[in-house]
Each structure stands twice: as C-alpha cells, then as structure tokens.
Amino acid sequence: MQRVQRDTRRPSRQAGPSSEAGADDAREAETRQRETDTVAILHRLAGKPASEVLARITDGDLLRLFPLCAQRIRDAAYVLDPERVFELALTKTAIGIELDGARCAEPGWLVEFVDRAILSTLERDRADEQSGNPPDRPLSHFPLLIESCYVEPALARLASVRYNALEARVRLGFQKLIVEGLPLEQVLAMGLGPPDRLQIDILLALKAIGLLDDEGVEQFRSKEAQP
C-alpha cells in the first residue's frame, strides 16, 4: 500500500493565560472546520466504487483516519501499532463508503469503522498466536513492549494479546500511571482507584506482559492482606 504522508507539525506554544485561551479557541475552530470538511468529502464520495474511494482517501490521508485510529487506541488503552489499524481502516472505510453511502456522513460513522479495524487487528493477533504463526515485524508492531518493557521481540505479540485481553480498567490504569507517568492523585481522580485496587491492576498488567509471575502477584496480595 502506498505510504501516506501525514501532517506532523506541532502548533507553536503561546505564553500567558489569554494566549492559551485564544489558542484553545483556535484549535476548537480548526477541529470543527475539519469535521465539516470531512462530512463534505464523505458526501462527495458516497456510493463511489471502493477502489476509487481507497485511492482518494489514501492520498494524504484525506479523512484524517490515522489520528483517529491513534486516538481510539489510546482511549481504549490498547497496545497496538496505529499504522496497522490505519491500513485496515482505509480498506474497511472505502468499502463502507461504497456500500453504505446513505449513512457514511452521519456522526460517528467513521469512528465505527475505525473501531472495527481495531477489533479486527486484535482478533488477527489472537488467531496468529493460537496458530503459532511467527510474529510479523515485531520491532515495528510492538515498540512499547520491546523498547520500554524490555519484552523479547519473539514474545511481544503474546504479551500484546494477553495485555489487550485485560479489563479496560486495568489497561487504562497501567497506561495512565506507568506509560504516561501521570501523578497517582490524577489517576485516582479518573475513577481508577481505590489505591489498593489500582496496585493490583498494575500487577495484573505486568503479569500479562510477562514481567511478573503468579507468585509475585500472590506475594503482594498476601502482604496486603496482613493486618
């Protein structure tokens, strides 16, 4: 598939409360304009052949699917390479625009197809792991696990499958506290507490990744249960 060039420029920082407020307003206006533009593009493409749609939306990421994929992955706290989801979302969206032209411009339609691409990617990893197929490009597909958690490349897909199968609360707590490094008080304020449950959730995530065994989890639970 043709590699898509995406806009990676960052907005310049503004100093002062009034400047920050103005910058927020500008970003909101830009977001609304992008949403309006996306709806207009979907209306123009509705019902056209999927091959034509795919060529159009791949060129420059016309529908801004890549940032949407990355955002939905973050929201669900999955360990997934956004590029993989993006490539699948392009195909699914192109087919959907051809077959579902009457609905494709409705609010939430694109999100629905991105979420389908995420679930399909998760299912493919599970199926490949169960079938014993060797991982494909683990260094690029699972960089967080390999580079930050020091998981062996050959075990990275297994770690990803086990981690992504955890409850959403467990994944989100690990992402916010460990991956993003947010303060404990802020993580607890997100409803991911109380602290003892959050601690257990972090241990469960570490166990799923392969950085802690059953004995380590039980030792911690036994210690916490002591008066």
Task: Characterize the structure shown.
The protein has two domains: 22-133, no CATH class; 166-227, no CATH class. The chain has helices spanning 17-45, 50-58, 65-76, 82-99, 109-131, 138-141, 143-148, 153-164, 168-179, 184-192, 195-209, 214-225. The radius of gyration is 21 Å and the shape is globular. It is mainly alpha-helical and 227 residues long. 71% of the residues lie in helices and 0% in strands. Mean pLDDT is 88; it is low at 8-13. Helix 5 crosses helix 8, helix 8 (153-164) packs antiparallel against helix 11 (195-209) and helix 9 packs across helix 11 (195-209). The chain has twelve helices and no strands.
List the helices and strands and how they pair.
Elements: H1 17-45, H2 50-58, H3 65-76, H4 82-99, H5 109-131, H6 138-141, H7 143-148, H8 153-164, H9 168-179, H10 184-192, H11 195-209, H12 214-225
Q: Which segments are poorly predicted (pLDDT under 50) over 5 or more consecutive residues?
A: 8-13
SSE-based structural type: mainly alpha
Give the beta-strand count. 0
Number of helices: 12
Q: Give Rg in angstroms.
A: 21 Å
